[in-house]
Amino acid sequence: MIGVVSFFALVIMGLGALSLFAEQDMISVPRLGQLPGVLGMVLGVLVFALALWAVLADRRPSFVATVFLALGAALAHLGGVWAAAVAEGAGAVGATAAAGQLVLGGASAVIVVAALIAAWLAIALRRTAARAPRWPWEKDDDGA
């Protein structure tokens, strides 16, 4: 769960910072609303969460999986944006322009980096068998 929440938070922060410093919208295709960006992000997070769940099912997952998780999340995001842009009426050319703006503008790179960090964090926690911290007085027995 911490991996998925971290991924979403890092993406939102990264895209906000990128938009602020670039001083432009991530997608600037005429007649295209916010729906493609939202659906693309939902699909990206969903793919990341399901793939991470599958990776973490292994007792000792490999850190190499972070690369595939990151690429899968970024490609799912692009595919979601493209499909939603077509459905919103931008056509194939407008949808491809929107996806191209995400790749060339750096938004896809932000998603890849955020997914790499979040996946590495989740896999590291799984490999160390980390548990929630406990106070010294919290014991499994009744203490009686």
Largest sheet: none
What is the string of helix and strand elements?
A: HHHHH
Instruction: Identify low-pLDDT runs.
Output: none
User: Which structural class best describes the helix and strand composition?
Assistant: mainly alpha
SS strand fraction: under 5%
Oligomer: single chain
Number of helices: 5
- Please tally the β strands and state the result: 0
The residue fraction in helices comes out at over 70%
Overall body shape: elongated
From the N-terminal CA to the C-terminal CA, the straight-line distance is: 35 Å
Whole-number total of structural domains: 1
On the 0-100 scale, what is the average pLDDT?
Answer: 88
Compute the gyration radius: what is it?
Answer: 19 Å
What structural keywords apply?
mainly alpha; about 140 residues
Task: Describe what is shown at a glance.
The chain is mostly helical. The chain contains five helices and no strands.
